[in-house]
Amino acid sequence: MSADKVNEQPNKDESEHSASAIFVELMRQAAAKAVSSKSKSGPDDAGKSPPGSAAAADHSASAGVTEVSLEPDAVAPEVKRIRPRRWILRRPQPSSMASGFLGTIFVVVVSTALVATLLMFFVNPEYVNPAVVRGLQLESEEIIAGVAAGNPTPVRTPHWLRRIGIISGHRGKSDSGARDPGAICQDEYGNSILEEADINFAVATRVVASLEGMNYGVEMLDEFDPRLNDYRADALVSIHANTCYDFGEYVSGYIVAISEARPEFGADAFLRECIAENYGAYVPLERSYNLTADMTDNHTWRKIHPLTPGMILELGYMLADQAVLTEDPDLLARAIVDGILCFMENVNRPTSQLEPGRHPSGYVIPAMVTPTPIFGR
After folding, report:
1. Helix, strand, coil percentages in the chain from 3-state DSSP, rounded to 5
2. b/e code 129-145 from CB counts within 10 Å (16+ = b)
3. Cα–chain-centroid distance for residue 265?
4. Quick one: residue 177, left, alpha or beta (phi over 0 = left, psi -120 to 50 = alpha)?
5. Mean pLDDT of 356-367
6. What is the signed CA dihedral for 219, 221, 226, 230, rounded to 10 degrees?
7. CA-to-CA distance for 62 and 64, rounded, in angstroms?
8. Is 184 helix (H, G, I), strand (E, B) or coil?
9. Mean pLDDT of 8-15
10. Which position has the higher pLDDT, 30 or 15?
């Protein structure tokens, strides 16, 4: 063996030993950097081994792949998380009061036009009260005729907005829940042959039907109707018939009465006189002034609104005037309706010119003046 060959072998081992030392040193530096980067990255990246670390080296070695870091001082780029972009809502700019008001008016007008269009095409005209339609047509014709004649057009409240209450005396149940037929006429055996409630109802229904045909807002009320509490109307008429008791003498006539708490020259008195004069003009009965506490201090007067004009009409006595009360209820109803129109429209004035003063019997007669409407105006 020559000297050159002997010297060559140590140089080879030395070179291999130096390469191994360099590789180990590189791996150590890479592991140290991996530990430092892992401590900075936080817990989220704890389960991941950066390239060049000892774990990565072991994994590479087990896979049979040798990785050599040519740049041991290179630092892996920092990965930043990108948050999703959030939409920022801008605060609306305050608008002026005028623009808001005009916008509201525009919405109301458009909505009204749309609803009117839908109603015109999809609503059956038969659903509209024919009395209301007829009343509007009559009002329009009167206004057109007045304009054509050069007359001023009066502004009147439509009839269907004017409220009238008609009480059918003793109809329904009393406050105690029992039925109260009112006065009763009996035969010689004590059997009931005529009840006041039936007479009152027959007349009241005809009055309501007639006023509804004139487009008035009319309500049929029971004697103890809960709607009477604080009841407001342009007029309230309570229809009754007088007793069937035999006084031993001929007692006849109709009676009109108002609350004793109401003034004698107010709207209540005017309503009373309109009913009295027109009823007397149609019905062949004399006016009686036999007032009782049941008339002047009736429970109805303590319930209704203080501004509601009200009166009680006793149609006649059920004994002496029985034929008048039962044979022609249409006549009685017509007399009452004309009396109400006298009060509501200042028409059908009594034939006699009443002046303020006293009746020969001592009853005060008020002046016939047109009342001021009080309900809804």
Report:
1. 45, 10, 45
2. eebeeebeeeeeeeeee
3. 38
4. left
5. 39
6. 60
7. 5
8. strand
9. 50
10. 30
Which residues fall within 8 angstroms of residue 230, CB to CB, at 6 or more apart?
A: 303, 304, 305
Distances (CA, A) of 187 to 184, 195, 244, 251, 252: 10, 12, 11, 19, 20
CA 352 to chain centre: 47
Number of helices (H) and strands (E) in the chain: give both, helices first.
9, 9
Question: What pLDDT, on a 0 to 100 scale, did the predictor assign at position 341?
Answer: 94
54-107 pLDDT per residue, tens: 444 454 444 444 444 444 454 545 555 666 666 555 666 666 777 777 888 888
What are the two backbone dihedrals, phi and then psi, of residue 158, each rounded to the nearest 5 degrees?
-55, 145
Nearest to 347 by CA among 357, 336, 339, 356: 339
Q: Using H for helix, E for strand and C for coil, what is the string for 192-219?
A: EEEEHHHHHHHHHHHHHHHHHHCCCEEE
Report H helices in 328-374: 329-345
Which H or E run contains 231? none
CA-based nearest residue to 187, from 251, 253, 244: 244
Q: Which of 21, 69, 82, 76 is nearest to 49 (CA)?
A: 76
Fold classified for 160-365: Aminopeptidase (3.40.630)
Q: Which residues of 340-355 are buried (b: 16+ CB within 10 A; e: fewer)?
A: bbbbbeeebebeeeee
Give the CA-trace dihedral at 220, 221, 222, 223, to 10 degrees.
Answer: -130
Residue 359 has pLDDT above 50, yes or no: no
Q: Considering Cα of 352, then 355, then 360, then 363, what sign does the dihedral take? A: positive
What are the boundaries of each domain within the chain?
Answer: 14-76, 100-148, 160-365
One-letter amino acid of 261: A
Size of the chain, expressed as the number of residues it contains: 377
Residues 6 or more apart whose CB falls under 8 angstroms from that of 272 comprise 256, 257, 258, 311
Instruction: Give the list of residues 6+ apart from residue 2 with CB closer than 8 angstroms, or none.
Output: none
Residue 312 sits at φ, ψ, to 5 deg, of -110, 135
Beta pairing, strands 255-257 & 310-317 = antiparallel
